[in-house]
Amino acid sequence: MTDTDLDQMHAAERPKARPRRFGAVVIWMHWTTVVLIVALFASALSIGLAANGDQADLLLTIHRSLGVTTWIVALCRLGWRLTLAYLPPFPETMPKLQQKIATLSEYALYALMLTQPLTGLAQSFARGRPFHLFSLAVPQVMERDKGLVHLFSQIHEITAWTLLGLICVHVLAALFHRFILNDEVFQSMAPWKPKGLHR
Ligand code: HEM
User: Fold this and answer.
1) Residue whose CA is at the smallest distance from ligand 1 atom 12
2) 3-state DSSP call for residue 133?
3) Any atom of ligand 1 within 6 Å of the Cβ of 81
4) What is the torsional sign of CA 12, 13, 17, 19?
5) Whose CA is nearest to atom 35 of ligand 1?
6) Residue 48: inside a domain, yes or no?
7) Is the dihedral of CA 109, 28, 35, 149 positive or negative?
8) Most Cβ neighbours (<10 Å): which of 101, 140, 158, 159?
């Protein structure tokens, strides 16, 4: 169907253009995750600066609680994405290979968001002490195992920086779309509704 055919059609008969923005639930969960990840890095990196043991314990409880929340949100996001979510099409100008890389990097982010809390949790269990998630007391489930604490601590640290690196690439790619390519990719996930963008 050409543009002229479309122009000659009655407005009601025209096929509706696919919305350029992600669905509201996807956008909401995306920005909730951003807030959670910022708080997770801030709380983890502040532990070393705590003035005393009580402050360090509180920061670690905040970190653990937000980490488990992130895991639940990531699982819901993935479930929603694979079932009911509305995902706008990539811009027509975007090469297929680039589209594949973008999708792959999004799944890599999901994989890291889902494994990171598990290695944190494993580290906390291996310490062999009860701990708190929000106000919920999690009992000791095993004797302290120094080797496992070290192993999970290393994995947790390496994947945290990998996650941060991937997030930086993700943000740079979004800014590249916004300011260099001037397409609608950035606006499609903006928390506000940009003027002139369909839906
Ligand atoms: C996406 C989720 C998470 C991110 C991005 C994250 C990130 C980090 C980072 C950057 C550190 C500092 C580096 C390190 O020592 O490993 C850290 C430390 C730690 N995290 Fe996580 N974390 C997450 C989830 C969790 C969860 C769910 C738990 C436990 C329930 C947890 C427990 C810990 C512990 C015990 C430490 C060591 C803190 C210390 O003793 O100094 N993390 N995390």
Assistant:
1) 44
2) strand
3) no
4) positive
5) 124
6) yes
7) negative
8) 159
* Residue 133 covered by a domain: yes
Of the candidates 108, 123, 124, the one whose C-alpha atom is nearest the C-alpha of residue 155 is 123
Whether residue 70 has its Cβ less than 6 Å from ligand 1:
yes
Note down the domain range covering 79.
17-186
Q: Say if ligand 1 is within 6 A of residue 160 CB.
A: yes
- Residue 34 CA to ligand 1 center (angstroms) comes to 16
For the chain, the domain total comes to 1
Q: How do residues 78-133 score in pLDDT, each as one tens digit? A: 999 999 999 999 999 999 999 999 999 999 999 999 999 999 999 999 999 999 99
Decide: pTM greater than 0.85.
Answer: yes
Task: Copy the structure tokens of residue 165.
Answer: 């690196």
Q: Is 74 in the pocket of ligand 1 (CB under 6 A)?
A: no
Q: Is residue 197 part of a domain?
A: no
| 91 phi/psi in degrees, rounded to 5 | -60, 145
User: Over the chain (199 residues), what is each successive 10-residue block's mean pLDDT?
Assistant: 45 62 96 98 97 96 98 98 94 93 97 98 98 97 98 98 98 96 93 73
- Domain of residue 127, CATH code: 1.20.950
